[in-house]
Amino acid sequence: MRENVRIEDLQGGVRLVTLDRPEKKNALTGAMYDAMRGALEAADASDAVGAVVFAGVPGAFSAGNDIADFVTRAEKAFSEAPSLRFIRQLARTRTPLVAAVDGVAVGIGTTLTLHCDLVYASPAARFRMPFVELGLVPEAASSYLLPRRVGRLKATELLLLSEMFGADQAEALGLVNAVMPSDMLVEHAVAQATRLAALPRGALAASRALIRGDQAQVDAALQAEAEAFDRQLRTPEAQERFQAFLARAKPASA
Ligand code: COA
After folding, report:
1. How far apart are the CA of 204 and the centre of ligand 1, in A?
2. What's the gap in Å between 126 CA and the centre of ligand 1?
3. Rounded Cα–Cα distance for residues 55 and 73 (Å)
């Protein structure tokens, strides 16, 4: 079976994590979250890895959590959800993180980038966080991180009204470092990650922790969101939205 997450260790201490489920726009399954979490855990444990780059396929960084998985997950204990374990690891990873966003970046496809140290996007990038529209609440500490990045009013538009925003707007909001053509994107992200990986590791780790701020606040937001998310996931208003999306996804003959 083809792997939906490719993990390559490049020269210069960079680990490239490529999401590769193009037929579903890189919607994330439990197995994909587990592979991503494993890649981050192993990066932290390895002296050879100095930075991690997240990339997608042309036109799709990630369409977010697989919505079919939201339906089945409501039947299980949320604390064991691969998505939550990935998010917890993402927030505490000590290795610098770089994102290369081309195409759709929905839900965790956007919120993942809030944890990255550098974010690059192509003009085709389309960010969106439709949690509330889906009957859910923000995740990955986005309810804490986003207002601090873009201000509360803008964060409200993006998190409550689920407004889509493009690469230029993301750059203007300070959510993206630079916009560049798709064919240069991953190469540039890897080059920047290589620069990070070459820095003195102790100074880098200490500086990164200072820049990122209070880890305890991020952890607290993450936990509060996870509890609210779990409650919402099981509500009829959320399950109806998931079913509506899945019904839409069926062939016209169905
Ligand atoms: N979960 C499950 N399947 C998904 C998915 C998701 N999050 N996102 C896309 N897909 C599937 C579609 O159902 C479709 O499958 P099909 O070919 O079997 O019908 C396939 O991926 C391609 O998606 P499609 O909608 O045809 O592509 P598009 O370019 O027109 O639109 C998106 C792309 C991402 C804008 C759109 O698919 C979308 O809104 N997806 C849902 C995103 C979302 O709400 N994620 C959860 C956030 S919390």
Report:
1. 38
2. 13
3. 26
Does ligand 1 come within 6 angstroms of the Cβ of 64?
Answer: yes
Measuring from atom 4 of ligand 1, which residue has the nearest CA? Answer: 24
| Ligand 1 contact, 24 CB (< 6 A) | yes
Query: What's the mean pLDDT in 71-99?
Result: 89
Any domain includes 197: no
Which of 1-5, 187-191, 204-208 has the lowest average pLDDT? 1-5
Residue 200 in domain: no
Ligand 1 pocket, residue 63 CB under 6 Å: yes
At 137-182, the pLDDT tens digits run 999 999 999 999 999 999 999 999 999 999 999 999 999 999 999 9
Closest CA to 82 of 93, 92, 70, 94: 70
Q: Is the CB of 246 under 6 A from ligand 1?
A: no
Q: Is the CB of 67 under 6 A from ligand 1?
A: yes
Q: How many structural domains is the chain composed of?
A: 1
- Sheet containing 165-166, strands listed edge to edge, beginning at the edge strand earlier in sequence: 60-62, 104-106, 126-128, 165-166
Average pLDDT for 75-100: 91
Is the Cβ–Cβ distance between 33 and 82 less than 8 Å?
yes
What is the C-alpha R_g of the chain? 17
Whose Cα sits closest to atom 28 in ligand 1? Answer: 25
Residue 254 has pLDDT above 50, yes or no: no
Give distance in angstroms: CA of 113 to centre of ligand 1. Answer: 19
pTM over 0.70, yes/no: yes
Tell me the residue range of the domain where 64 lies: 5-182+208-249
CATH code assigned at 131: 3.90.226.10
Inside any domain, residue 188: no
Identify whether 201 is part of a domain: no
Residues in the chain: 254
